Structures are given as structure tokens and as C-alpha cells.
Give the backbone structure.
Amino acid sequence: MYEADIDAVAALRVRGWRTAYAGLIPQHYLDAMSAEAQAQRRRAGFDSSRGTVWDLVAVDEEDAPVGWVCFGEYRGKIDAAAPGEAYALYVEPALMGRGIGRVLMDAVHQHTEVGRFATLLLWVLRDNVRARRFYAAAGYVSDGAVASDLYGETAVEEVRYRRSLVS
């Protein structure tokens, strides 16, 4: 991702959240999200995260971002060789189901298979059936780990998925 993409990716992320998490995360939380605040947060860490966090952006024929994935080292503690983690994957809501997410995940797998990580982990909302089907189709399986995040005062459960990247 280039620094010039940050504003468009931040807006894409907010639209993605509002679409994918409607009914799963409290509406007041989604309504309060701001593309400007997301962009400011991404811009603040942009230079310092290079080399440890990777952002891949899918663009349309006019070079407008239509999908984004962010990944790097696993942020939690685990009793295994240092795994990678897909932190976020969002596709322009109107273009969901057209293969953009699959292309981005394939690119992540290719990038991480080149000696970076033997395993890739990710967290997905327990009730996000569409995302869970997507990741299962990409070879991920739930490994039984569960976590909960607070959105406002509402706890939302997430499940961890894993995929081995070695044959």
C-alpha cells in the first residue's frame, strides 16, 4: 500500500465494517466510525510498521482501491513457531462475491509462504457466517480459540482460524 492509498483504504474499511458487521456489532458503534479517524490512525503508524506489517490493495481499472488486506506477525501468544496473522480483509461492499477477497488472500499466502510463516492465523466474528464460509473455502479451520472484544459496552465473540502454509 502506498501512503496515497490511506484515505481510500480507510473509507473502504469503514464501508466494509458497516456492511459486514451490521447486526453483529452495535449500530451506534458502526455509525460512530469515521474514515478520517481510520486514515489518521493508519497514517500515524504507516512508516513505523513497514517491514513488519504488509498492506496489499486491489484496485479497479481506474486505480481506485476496491479491496485491502493487512497482515504480519501474530499479535498474540502461541505455543508454536512464530505464525503470521491476517489482521483485516475488506472488499468494496458492492463488489463482494466477485473474487477480490480470494485474490487478496492468495497474494497473502504467496507472500507468507516465501519463508515468513509456516502458519497463518486470523480472527473472525463468531456470528459472521459469510466470512467463516469464505475462510473455510480458503483452507482455514477453526482451532478452538475464542476471544471477546468490546464494542461500546457490548462483548462480541471471535473465533480463531488457522491455515498451514507448508505442504
About this structure: The first strand starts at residue 53 and ends at 59.
